User: Which sequence fits this backbone?
């Protein structure tokens, strides 16, 4: 599949380090799938489709390295390439709890607008990093599905002063969800998975690894024997049980397996 | 799967079936290689091992740009041979022969890596002298003298079978194949990708892949490759691991009739998924049933007899 040209309609600043590209067009994407976004002459990186409006595709990006910084300088009318959507997304089920940490919200936003009678726990270090919190039309799309949003922050500046996983822990027995979804820091997702295992509740998490081809050939994004691009990025608890590298190891662009701490240091 | 009719051998290394995971695909971790074996591969080639760490080229690295051709410039990412130890130490867990593909920027670098591999569970050393999109522009495999230097340097330090991987992008591939044989190569792997070519995609000024040009692979290359296999087999008589466009069982049979003893599979994973190895084997058995072929050994090089 060749990259397809998409024009930038506008760029929304989300926080000091993140922004949303609004592209003109439509993608047949399911919640939790990703696209490869190509900035010709620079690089191509995987991103979740945060949401779509009529004829608009929104992709939220964190400024991390050269490619994402160059993407942050895109202006109205600039052209980017899109390949995808790729990968296995979430299995949308009502009566769920969705756990989103930091930028992980971008991967579960579409899901939160799809499922019903669910609770979205959105957490971040500070209130400024609770993305989309002031974007009314998005909140309406979540709430019109009879879904509730609970905010929490590490510093208590907005919502409860707590980690998403402790909010989940308190909520899970009372709400008895049919499934829990999570995207965010890997340690948070591992903890979410463990809570679900203890409570015998289905769980799906969206995993990130350094990705090259995006189509299941190069093996760069491997975790144990699974390819994040093709087998994932969303994995259910049955599969997560076998991912002994989760929360511990990841591979650098060279292919070297390192501890997560070193992997994140490389990427920031 | 365990059908004796598919048993083959390369440099005395026995394989249950002739399908081999080609280098560059999926070979990043032992766990993933074991999964490829579970999907039917008769042997596997982990990703090429280099001398120093390399991250590879920017994305897009692999683009299936039309129905039967893929362009790639991944750029040989490697942790470097020294940092491969944790992975290499587990190669023994892989239940089929392991072909270690290595590359360097000098004959010495190839030899150093090959020597290092003496301590590990590697069955065959594949010399990647043919990657068409290296940043440093070194392509030993296009020059018979440079090819000899690399093969000799490696043969001097290892007792394992040595199999240079040839490029189709040279003046005369038969000359390169003969140079390999003269300098002691035990087998040949043919061929690497074609090109490199910049591929123009509608709507963009920049070509793909991100490197600006890349090697071509996929079903479109099969027929050209079959001719090359026939030529180098008749010139050298060496065992050949044939690759380039093998997608179906019928392709594998053709490759073998043209002189190969085993067939590499890579791009076909894109077209037919990871269990393409099983599919190709089953299709080969079907064809052999219909044509009354008792063993693939009976048809190997059949077109040249």
Assistant:
């Amino acid at each position: 599949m060749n990259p397809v040209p998409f024009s930038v309609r506008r760029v929304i600043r989300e926080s000091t380090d993140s922004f949303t590209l609004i592209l003109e067009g439509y993608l047949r994407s399911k919640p939790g799938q990703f696209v490869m976004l190509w900035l010709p002459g620079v690089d191509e990186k995987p991103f979740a489709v945060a949401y779509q409006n009529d004829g608009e595709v929104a992709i939220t990006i964190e400024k991390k390295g050269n490619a994402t910084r160059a993407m942050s300088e895109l202006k109205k009318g600039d052209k980017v390439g899109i390949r995808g959507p790729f990968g296995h997304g979430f299995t949308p089920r009502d009566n769920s709890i969705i756990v989103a940490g930091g930028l992980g919200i971008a991967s579960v936003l579409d899901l939160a607008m799809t499922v019903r009678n669910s609770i979205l726990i959105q957490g971040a270090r500070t209130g400024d990093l609770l993305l989309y919190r002031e974007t009314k039309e998005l909140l309406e799309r979540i709430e019109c599905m009879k879904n509730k949003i609970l905010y929490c922050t590490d510093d208590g500046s907005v919502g409860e002063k707590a980690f998403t996983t402790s909010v989940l822990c308190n909520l899970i027995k009372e709400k008895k969800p049919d499934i829990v979804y999570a995207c965010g820091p890997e340690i948070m997702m591992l903890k979410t998975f463990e809570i679900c295992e203890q409570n015998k509740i289905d769980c799906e998490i969206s995993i990130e690894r350094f990705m090259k081809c995006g189509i299941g050939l190069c093996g760069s994004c491997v975790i144990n024997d699974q390819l994040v691009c093709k087998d994932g990025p969303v994995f259910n608890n049955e599969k997560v049980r076998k991912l002994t590298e989760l929360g511990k190891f990841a591979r650098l662009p060279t292919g070297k397996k390192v501890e997560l701490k070193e992997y994140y240091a490389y990427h920031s | 799967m365990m059908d004796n009719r598919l048993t083959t051998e390369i440099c005395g290394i026995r394989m249950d079936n002739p399908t081999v995971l080609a280098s560059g695909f999926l070979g990043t971790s032992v766990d993933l290689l074991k999964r490829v074996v579970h999907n039917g591969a008769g042997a596997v080639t982990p990703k090429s091992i280099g001398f120093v760490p390399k991250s590879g080229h920017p994305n897009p690295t692999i683009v299936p740009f039309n129905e039967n051709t893929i362009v790639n410039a991944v750029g040989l990412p490697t942790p470097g041979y020294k940092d491969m130890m944790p992975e290499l130490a587990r190669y023994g867990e892989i239940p089929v022969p392991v072909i270690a593909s290595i590359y360097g920027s000098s004959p010495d670098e190839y030899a150093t890596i090959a020597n290092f591999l003496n301590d590990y569970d590697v069955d065959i050393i594949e010399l990647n002298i043919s990657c068409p999109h290296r940043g440093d522009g070194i392509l030993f495999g296009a020059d018979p003298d440079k090819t000899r230097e690399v093969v000799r340097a490696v043969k001097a330090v290892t007792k394992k079978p040595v199999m240079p991987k040839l490029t189709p992008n040279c003046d005369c591939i038969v000359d390169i194949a003969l140079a390999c044989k003269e300098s002691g190569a035990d087998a040949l792997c043919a061929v690497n990708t074609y090109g490199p070519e910049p591929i123009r995609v509608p709507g963009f000024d920049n070509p793909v892949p991100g490197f600006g040009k890349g090697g071509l692979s996929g079903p479109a290359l099969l027929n050209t490759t079959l001719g090359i296999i026939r030529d180098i087999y008749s010139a050298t008589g060496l065992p050949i691991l044939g690759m380039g466009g093998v997608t179906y069982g019928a392709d594998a049979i053709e490759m073998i009739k043209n002189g190969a003893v085993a067939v590499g599979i890579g791009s076909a994973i894109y077209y037919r998924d990871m269990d393409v190895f099983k599919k190709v084997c089953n299709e080969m058995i079907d064809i052999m049933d219909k044509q009354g072929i008792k063993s693939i050994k009976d048809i190997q090089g059949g077109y040249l007899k």
